[in-house]
């Protein structure tokens, strides 16, 4: 499927509209620092959050949820069991799910759990560069939630992770990088204030699960700007496209919020407002997306994009 | 006792003043999403929050608290034990307590716990329509925290729950419905933005516990607008009145906040400000309360209000 | 070392600058109400928060963290084990750590744990007057997080705690009192709105751990206003100075925020902004610090300050 920047941007706007018309129910198993901001971000964007993270309920809920986030930020014992239950049930039910391997690398409990869960093939994996490198087995991870590595340094790790687990991998950073192992999008939206509030990355994992939920519902068709009906349906149902859409909308909301903020406190407030108020038209007007297609290339060779027909970096900037 | 709208509104204003003069200590056993906003809402309105929710402390604390909230949103194992301890101790000590059966219905752990706890006769039960219907055994519950049923659809379930457990039952919705099985109040204040932030319903449970705490202290008398001293004391000490008061004050604060908000982020901030700043005079000026008295009617027959002397719906709107 | 008010104020400004240049990694084992605001306060001031509070990871992390906070607000079983692990590891690694004995006194689990942990000699202990009195074994504690006692009533308890465990003890209140058993500083900055939001005290514990982390890195020297290089290095590396600095900067940020707030909701937002924006120059311009030196006095005799050469209360007000 062609996924040039213009298509990705149109699809981002279309999925935002769809998500708001049919709010997906998003189950979050997430860390104690960001539960509140994560739920608020989901409510703001238009989704329905449900933090069902206890044993004997988490799995059951994952079977009926529209999307699932498993974030390993504070994986206490009961939550680890809930994560295992939910991932198993999501796999059976076909619920799209996102793994966020927070701060893995040196910390043994979450690192082992991340490797266990990733084997169940998350629909998407979201992390910073250090986390993605650590999950791919290519590095030692960062210190806490800080990325010690740049987004581009994680490109090879992201590609090999994506191919190994048939997942979309999203690497957060000043420029976000999203790949399914073949296609790689870079998104240059966002604002540094996102790194000065808690949940700036973690809530994006939940919003990604929401867009994946909206995407799953989208295969039946629906308006997607200038795209034809059939193309639009296939495009909107593509997890790579949905993951790109989540990041595009989220980082554009951050830009809108930063214009109205004087510091991290007011930014956090304005960001929730912006998630609720950002329009599909603003998404189209502000998105900064570049795509590389390495279809014909070997895993990890995303720099060899010249070899593939559609592999010329293409940029759409408003 | 006569509880026409004017009396309920005067009592709401009076209890707000009393709560601020003598801040009740409110123990909250609540879910991980809303602990922070719940504590902040209590502090803002003028109460003293205490989130004591661990084994071997929760029960002890319930014995000295002015009010207790048990919210089942994320009932991990240790918290379930703490809830049981606290409810037992509250019953012995006479501490008023509120049960919020979040998302019960399909989820087995919390549903079983809700049925276990409700048998201990909560002073008040707060939920959305689907939760109240599920707790009354009359339906399957909603999906997550969303109500799939309307407030009025839950009126029969609320009445039968109230009569079965000698509880006041509060059903949150666009129009809030509160009943003790005989008297039913409907409160038309509030704003839809309350459903776009986390804790919009859950924090009301805690604020209800705070008003019940203030109410318990109120039987000794105190000013209640135009009411006589003795009438005022009995009125303010009535859990039905206190539950109505909590909802009236809370939803009016939401209206004041909505007037100052551009989205859910700024609403959440303005709402805490409004809880702190709302005056008894504003409560009296803005309250929209209707009362039905079904004293002579059978359980579940709140629509047969014509049969009872005071059963004509009476409305006071400012 | 002389630590008159002017030196403390210069050092507060210098440590703030140093913290922002070299963000310390601060591990927080804290209560469920304030995890989010604590992490946000650390991010705002310029530090890097990490809420690693599970078994088999907490200890490991304490060995590499720049500072550690152990707050006993909601000490569930797994968190208690994590606290023990972390304190043991911090002691071995020399990681500075802060104990916040929230609401100890009548509640048995946290009270026993506080007494166990304090024996491991926290670098600093932060609490309200009732908590400090209870930890010193001199009283029964407060009700919940409210202090039933005044800051000055806790002065003797603070001094004896400090001397018994070689800790700096910080008592929060309208005037904050900080002592290492010999020197006592009183800080008259702050705003009552800090008591109307959750985390007003708890987040200060985390910020204190951040300043202790910055202080540990500071012994190699660095600019400290008009102080000489060597003096500056020793001054900045002094845990008493770092604890004073944390309170000075934090309470000045509260003042700046209060000037921009209409209630507790907007204050909480403005406070995070102020923590991010407050400058060393503002710290110097606004700090209200008094110092008493009881070097020659016996424990608990801080009122006998006339007996010591440098013991005259000295005040620097901008």
From TrEMBL, chains A, B, C:
Pathway: Cofactor biosynthesis; thiamine diphosphate biosynthesis; 4-methyl-5-(2-phosphoethyl)-thiazole from 5-(2-hydroxyethyl)-4-methylthiazole: step 1/1. Residues 295-318 are annotated as: Disordered. Gene3D superfamilies: 3.40.1190.20. ATP binds at residues 126, 172. One of its GO terms (biological process) is thiamine diphosphate biosynthetic process. GO terms for molecular function: ATP binding; hydroxyethylthiazole kinase activity; magnesium ion binding. The keyword ATP-binding applies. It comes from the Bacteria. InterPro entries: Hyethyz_kinase, Ribokinase-like. Its EC number is 2.7.1.50. This is Hydroxyethylthiazole kinase. It comes from Agromyces aureus. The gene is thiM.
């Amino acid at each position: 499927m062609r996924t040039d920047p213009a298509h990705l941007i149109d699809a981002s706007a279309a999925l935002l509209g769809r998500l708001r018309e049919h709010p997906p129910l998003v189950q979050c198993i997430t860390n104690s620092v960001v539960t509140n901001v994560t739920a608020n971000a989901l409510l703001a964007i238009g989704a329905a959050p449900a933090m069902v993270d206890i044993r004997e309920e988490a799995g059951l809920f994952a079977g009926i949820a529209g999307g699932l986030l498993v974030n390993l930020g504070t994986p206490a014992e009961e939550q680890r069991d809930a994560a295992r239950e939910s991932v198993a049930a999501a796999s059976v039910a076909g619920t799209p799910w996102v793994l966020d391997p927070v701060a893995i690398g040196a910390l043994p409990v979450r690192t082992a759990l991340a490797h266990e869960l990733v084997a169940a093939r998350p629909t998407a994996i979201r992390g910073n560069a250090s986390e993605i490198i650590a999950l791919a087995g290519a590095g030692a991870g960062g210190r806490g939630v800080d990325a010690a590595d740049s987004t581009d340094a994680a490109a090879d790790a992201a590609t090999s992770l994506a191919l190994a687990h048939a997942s979309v991998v999203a690497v957060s950073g000043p420029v976000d990088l999203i790949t399914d192992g073949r296609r790689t999008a870079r998104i240059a939206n966002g604002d540094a204030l996102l790194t000065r509030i808690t949940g700036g990355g973690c809530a994006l994992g939940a919003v990604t699960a929401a867009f994946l939920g909206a995407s799953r519902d989208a295969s039946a068709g629906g308006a997607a700007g200038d795209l034809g009906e059939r193309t639009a349906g296939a495009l909107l149902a593509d997890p790579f496209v949905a993951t790109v859409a989540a990041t595009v909308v989220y980082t554009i909301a951050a830009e809108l919020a930063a214009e109205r903020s004087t510091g991290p406190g007011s930014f956090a407030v304005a960001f929730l407002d912006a998630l609720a108020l950002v329009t599909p038209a603003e998404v189209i007007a502000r998105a900064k997306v570049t795509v590389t297609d390495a279809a014909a290339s070997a895993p990890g060779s995303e720099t060899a994009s010249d070899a593939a027909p559609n592999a010329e970096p293409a940029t759409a900037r408003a």
